[in-house]
Specification:
disordered N terminus
Length: about 210
Amino acid sequence: MLHLTLFTSNMLALHYSPYKIECGTDEAGRGCLAGPVTAAAVILSNHFNHVLLNDSKQLSELKRDILKPIIESESISFGIAHIFQEEIDTINILNASILAMHKSIELLNPAPEFIIVDGNKFKPFKNIPYETIVKGDGKFTSIAAASVLAKTYRDAYMNIIHEEFPMYNWKQNKGYPTKKHREAIKKYGITKHHRKTFRLLPEQLKLNL
């Protein structure tokens, strides 16, 4: 089924399948201690190409911010979905990540005929055929575009809640388990935005939940 005849200038493949309407999906924030896990799904035309586009983790914040409106305006369709910490704590982060991807795909119009997923875990969505692709965000245009949107939308949300709880420095760490983030948890405790089922501190038993 593999069909890699079209490539962008930076050697990302445009399609995995022979289906005309193929979407890529990816998530951001899976390893964070606070905030949502955010997923995006994107359908791109065969003509889409941008020299900056790559796996969002390989891009600077400036490049992601440049790409975001370009992807939004030039995509056939895109969808964004957040799954917040309460649900993450209830259904676990893997299920929450997949649910976020499902919800983002559900927003696409037209609906995709095939889905390509970054990573190696997914669950069937409405009987649409799919393929999981390890490091797919560095291999396929639509997954790379989804990774950029998921990252930028999640970062924007973390910047907003940073204003409410500036001591955790979410504007910089975006909820990831940095040393300063963990020091703030130890000093101030946890907030309503923290994932209570995550190992928030190495000495978890000392944290009053």
